[in-house]
Amino acid sequence: MPVASIASDDKNQPSSNLLDGVETFSIECFGMPQQTTLDMDACMGVEIDHVNWVRDKYQAKALNRIQQDNKDDPLLQQKLTAAFNDESKAWSALIDKASTSVMIDSDGGTISGTASSIRQIGLIELQIHDIWENWLRFGDSTPPLLPEPQIQGCTIKSSRFLKSDAPFGRFFVPVTLASGTFKPTAR
Questions:
Q1: Pair 4, 14: CB distance under 8 Å
Q2: Which superkingdom heads the taxonomic lineage of this protein's source (predicted)?
Q3: What are the pLDDT digits (tens) for 165-182?
């Protein structure tokens, strides 16, 4: 039976469902308008906050495992903690550089920030799963320390703002004109 959780103790904690060892986190920004580029950017900011919350949860659990499993060997504990922290810094650098490259590629486009955020969310999702796969699972039948993470959302990907038959990596973007009407433009 699925277990649903909506935490009230942390404003960035997304809702989630747990079923068959997989926790699906919903990072969508429900109830937020998505009519303008500013609306879309605000929505993406919420989604990034949600996915970062999930990443922080999995990172904290991995660091806790390193501390607990190696409490009798301080040197190994120190080496593993440093290795994990270095890995996390490398992920952060990759995410930053990849997001920046998307921003540069779509420079001048009305949704350059949104496109960059979508890339950032996708890479953070990969990082979360990598943490689970390599730090929170065991090689035997021992259950993982946290359920397998799955991210549901990014609202913008499924919205009317991106045209599904556009060439890969190119977006059809609504532009608000002075008259208040929308004119789709290809990027």
A1: no
A2: Bacteria
A3: 433 343 433 333 333 333
What the block records as the tokens of 8 is 């009230």
Phi, psi of 26 (to 5 degrees): -95, 110
Higher pLDDT, 166 or 38: 38
Q: What is residue 29's DSSP assignment?
A: -
Angle in degrees, CA 28, 128, 148, rounded to 5: 85
DSSP strand pairing (22-26 vs 172-176): unpaired
Report the alpha-carbon angle 158-44-110, nearest 5.
80
* Domains of the chain, residue spans: 3-186
DSSP 25: E
What DSSP element (H or E) covers 182? strand 182-186
Q: Is the pLDDT of residue 83 over 70?
A: yes
User: Which residue shows structure tokens 């960059």?
Assistant: 116
